Each structure stands twice: as structure tokens, then as C-alpha cells.
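idk why but the lab printer keeps eating my pages so im just putting this in chat instead. protein + 4-(N,N-dimethylamino)cinnamoyl-COA:
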Amino acid sequence: MEFITYEQDGFVGVITINRPKALNALNSQVLDELNETLDNVDLDTTRALILTGAGDKSFVAGADIGEMSTLTKAEGEAFGKKGNDVFRKLETFPLPVIAAVNGFALGGGCEISMSCDIRICSENAIFGQPEVGLGITPGFGGTQRLARLVGAGMAKQMIYTARNIKADEAYRIGLVNAVYPAEELMEQAKKMAGGIAANAPIAVRNCKKAINDGLQVDMDQAIVIEEKLFGDCFETEDQKAGMGNFLEKDKEKKLKVVPFQNK
Ligand code: DAK
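predcted complex ->
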């Protein structure tokens, strides 16, 4: 692959968008390669993913403006679908995905980070949805995911004004969970991913599905979704070992990683 690198570090997979000359802007090839990378993640040996950008300046500076500038309506739609399909694949991926935002996260960059489960960023990170300044609306789910994450009022302000915000403001409005010095960002992302990977994988996957699916429906339906996914954990090795360790009061054993069981 030319623009995506994938490294496996224990149970954690690190996906890097690697097009630093264009500040990791998303062109069709990047989207295709990202799609293929996700398809190739080994779900038996991986428990969490980290998504980041190459270099120390940019996470993703948006969709590729050069490529988009000449699109016809039909091509624009096809490009939008390609992006939306990959972003949705990330959002519904069976493993948790942490966005380690190491610089610019503009337009499609902000949007791809919002397709991840959790966002942490470096102190030099800049978030924004500048699309209205380019004569378009956010096209990779920005109007929907930003409003769900930070509330409609704040999302509308960011999108209508096209004003970028710095890391501390992104933290204040709840767009990111934590801000770290740039040199600590990946270490902290790996620490968080490792913490997730130490827990029962089927339970973690089911939690992701319960939260995501439950947010799309009313509370009565959401509780039914949770019940099903809760029930689904029983009779797994993870559930037997996790509860058995507690009941045996074996602290050492309790702290051990529960053996992975794929379903
Ligand atoms: N696309 C293509 N190239 C980009 C780019 C981008 N988004 N952002 C940066 N680059 C390239 C620059 O052209 C430059 O290339 P060279 O001239 O060196 O060849 C190189 O990266 C370095 O950029 P700068 O020289 O500009 O670096 P600075 O530090 O001066 O400025 C910057 C950094 C991030 C402030 C600036 O590059 C900038 O404003 N970039 C554009 C940011 C932006 O507006 N992003 C949002 C793009 S719109 C849709 C689906 C999705 C979308 C739309 C429709 N459909 C459903 C159809 C999404 C839209 C967007 O994301």
C-alpha cells in the first residue's frame, strides 16, 4: 500500500494514514487502502485499533481538495459514498478504535476522527469543519456526528462559522477525551488501547454495539438491545473465567488477561 501503514503491537493494531506531503488528505486511493486495511485486520488476534496520521503536523487535513475540485455531481456523489462507507465501517467495526489526533483534523479529518469510538489529541491539534467556506456542506457525516458528540448548538456554530478550534477548546466541548504533549500522544493511545485489550473482548465488542445501536433508537428499544448483548456474553469462556476468578478471590488470576474466545 502506498498511503496506509498497519503495525501490530500485541493485541493493538495501529493504522497510520501516511501521505504527509498533502498533510494526510483523503483522496480516493487513501480511502480504498483504508477500506482494505480494515478488511484485513485479524479479529482473532486484535482487540483494539489506533488511527493516526504520519508526521507531527497533521492527523488528516480533510478530503483532497485537488481531487474534489474537478468532480462532476455524479463523481462527487460516488466520492462521498466511498468515504461514507469507509467511515461507517470504522464506526461499526467490531473492535474499539481510538483516534490519536496529532495535528490538523479539518473537514474529512475531523469527520474521520468522529467515526472512531474515542478521540485523544496532541496539544497542537486543530479541529474544524471548514466546508462552507469551500462552498460545500460537510460530506462525510460531519453534520450528524458532530451534533451528536458536542450538541446541536456547538456543532452549528462550528459548521456555520467554519472556525477552527484548538485542542483545549475541543477538550472543553467534549470533542476529545484528553489532550497530551505531542511526544506522549502515541504512548497514551497505546496505554488506553492496552487497557481495553486487557478486558474480555466479546464483552467490549458487545458494549460498542450496545452504545452505537442504542443511540439510534428510543430508550425502550435501546434497553432491549442491551439485554440481548448482555445475554450474549453468557456461556462464553470470558464470562466463566471473569466471574470465576472473582468468586475464587484469586486476585492474581483476576488480573490476568482472560483468554480470547472468538465467537
Ligand atoms: N487537500 C489536498 N491537499 C492539501 C489539503 C487538502 N485538504 N490540505 C493540505 N494540502 C496540501 C497543500 O496543498 C500543500 O501541498 P503542496 O502545495 O506542498 O503540494 C501541503 O498539503 C501543505 O499544506 P500547506 O502548505 O497549506 O500547509 P500550511 O501549514 O500552510 O497550512 C492547513 C495547513 C491545514 C491550514 C492548510 O493546508 C489548509 O487549510 N488545508 C485545507 C484544509 C481544509 O479546508 N480541509 C477541508 C477540506 S474539505 C463530500 C465528502 C466529503 C467532503 C466533501 C464532500 N461528498 C459527500 C462529496 C469533505 C470535504 C473536506 O474535507
